[in-house]
Write a structure and sequence with these properties.
Layout: H1 3-14, E1 24-26, E2 44-47, E3 50-54, H2 67-80, H3 95-108, E4 112-116, H4 119-130, E5 136-140, H5 145-154, E6 157-161, H6 166-175, E7 181-186, H7 198-207, E8 211-215, H8 230-233, E9 237-238, E10 241-242, E11 253-258, E12 268-272, H9 274-283, H10 285-288, H11 295-310, H12 313-329, H13 333-336, E13 341-342, E14 349-355, H14 357-369, E15 372-373, E16 376-377, E17 387-392, H15 399-410
Parallel strand pairs: 3-15, 5-6, 5-7, 7-8, 8-11
Antiparallel strand pairs: 1-2, 2-3, 4-12, 9-10, 11-12, 13-14, 14-17, 16-17
Helix pairs in contact: 2-11, 3-11, 4-5, 4-9, 6-7, 12-15
Amino acid sequence: MTTWFDDALQQLAAHHLQRRRRQVAPLHAPAELAPHEEALRATTYLVDGQPRLSFGSNDYLGLSQHPALMAAAHAAIDRYGVGATASPLVCGHSPEHEALEADLARHVGLPRALYFYAGYAANVGAIPALVGKGDAVFSDALNHACIIDGVRLSRAEAHIVPHADLAALETALRASTARRKLVVTDAVFSMDGNVADVPALLALCERFDAMLMIDDAHGFGVLGPQGEGTLAHHGIAGAAGVAPAWQGRLDRLIYMATLGKSAGVAGAFVAGSDRIIEWVMQKARTYMFATAAPAHIAAALRAGVQVIQDEPGRRTHLAALRARLREGLAGCEAIRDGRWRLLPSDTAIQPLVIGSNEAALAVMAALDAQGIWVPAIRPPTVPDGTARLRISLSAAHTAEQVDRLCAALATRPA
């Protein structure tokens, strides 16, 4: 029996699909840096003991090392200790959690928010709470694994719709006779960086009386005038509230975003109408039966939401870095001759498609030898034959660091 695992692991290795976990720590301690050097802690790491410039983190705004967030966490530890001790529905829901949910709802312009300890838990809990046997779910083919697993756990009839294909979605919705219908999609697709057409999706859901759930893990904090996310990016709702054209039309919308990326800490939230969020709180098993995140996590997140609102320069700088990267890579020989493809993306995610698993790992290793860490993403995370470097930019990066990456890729033999 146990030899099966040896054989299966050997097969993973043979196909260049075996993952390796690395030990990662900030290169600098806070006391070693002047206040204006804080960003260095969010871009330079010790990776397995070796210093590396990282383009692999989801810390898009560089908030994981922000002094305001760390100070808020320290103060909350002094007040609440380090553990929540129970489920939120028992005694794990503190005043910090309550205030965080109010802050998040206000920030994205929706009536109510519910905080989960992890983004994966939010999706695999909320989707089965919203639909079940006798219902239907319509899921984009490139949705994240936590959406896929949430759909499976719901036991609803699953319809996998070709990526961003509104016509196919319309056909599937029209043909469905399910009692309840849920369309679910990433808002920003994590491996491609493209943004879903949320207004068009909402319009389809209105026509066919369906609910729409969007996962804004990679849009929250980055998109929108105040970092409110993809809804604000599309002019639907944000810190100023719901746009007039959408007033009274968002009862069918469920908004989810993670807080371990742009917000710099951990967890996720689901937001929407009061009745839907109350139902998710009553029925999501990952909320009901899991110990809550500690109060100091919620306190740090409250500080993070405030920084997202108060420091728009981080988003401006991030946009400038994105333009600099794309301009710098335009002269890369492997891109010019079509061996590599830099996918179009207006987000912090800049995917460079290499092709085979072996080739992507080779480029990653060549960068690593130059002190630069960019993860190679392989199946099943992406389709076969599209292994890639997922270049993640952060507001903590400097223009010089981006130039260094471009130069390293330009000199890498394809």
